């Protein structure tokens, strides 16, 4: 089993930027970011395959968010630019050893505890 630890959340004004990091305790096949706002279901933000680095984004964040990784450190990052209040929520790092759909949150077996992002 792999453990995931997120960091980098915080509060920012609309139009600002935040940078999230997630460290995994071991190698995984794919890692990514999901978010959940109060009263809403958790949904995909961005994911990246460890081997090859293919990335996938939710339509709502394309052009504003960038997911990247440091495979040597089992770490995935999320650069979030031009944030708006709709981006607020708890951001969770997720990982698995295989997925059928890279943005399907139900297919991820390992989750971090989450980090809060607030955009005002």
Strand-helix topology:
Blueprint (H helix, E strand, L loop, with lengths): L3 E4 L2 E3 L5 E7 L5 E7 L6 E7 L5 E3 L7 E6 L4 E6 L8 E8 L13 E2 L3 E5 L1
From the spread of the alpha carbons, the general shape counts as: globular
Mind summarizing the main beta sheet? 7 strands, mixed
| Mean residue pLDDT | 96
The helix-strand sequence is EEEEEEEEEEE
Describe this structure in words.
- The protein is an all-beta fold and 120 residues long.
- It contains no helices and 11 strands.
- The strands form 2 sheets. Strands 2, 4, 5, 6, 9, 10 and 11 form a 7-stranded mixed sheet that branches.
Short description:
This protein has 120 residues and is mainly β.
Key phrases:
mainly beta, four-stranded antiparallel β-sheet, 11 strands
């Amino acid at each position: 089993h792999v453990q995931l630890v997120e960091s980098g959340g915080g509060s920012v004004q609309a139009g600002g930027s935040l940078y999230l990091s997630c460290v995994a305790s071991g190698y995984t096949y794919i890692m990514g970011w999901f978010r959940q706002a109060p009263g809403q279901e958790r949904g995909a933000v961005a994911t990246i395959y460890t081997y090859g680095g293919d990335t996938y984004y939710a339509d709502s964040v394309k052009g504003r968010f960038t997911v990247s990784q440091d495979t040597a450190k089992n770490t995935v990052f999320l650069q979030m630019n031009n944030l708006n209040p709709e981006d607020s929520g708890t951001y969770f790092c997720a990982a698995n050893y295989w997925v059928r759909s890279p943005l399907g949150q139900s297919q991820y077996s390992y989750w971090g505890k989450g980090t809060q992002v607030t955009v005002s």
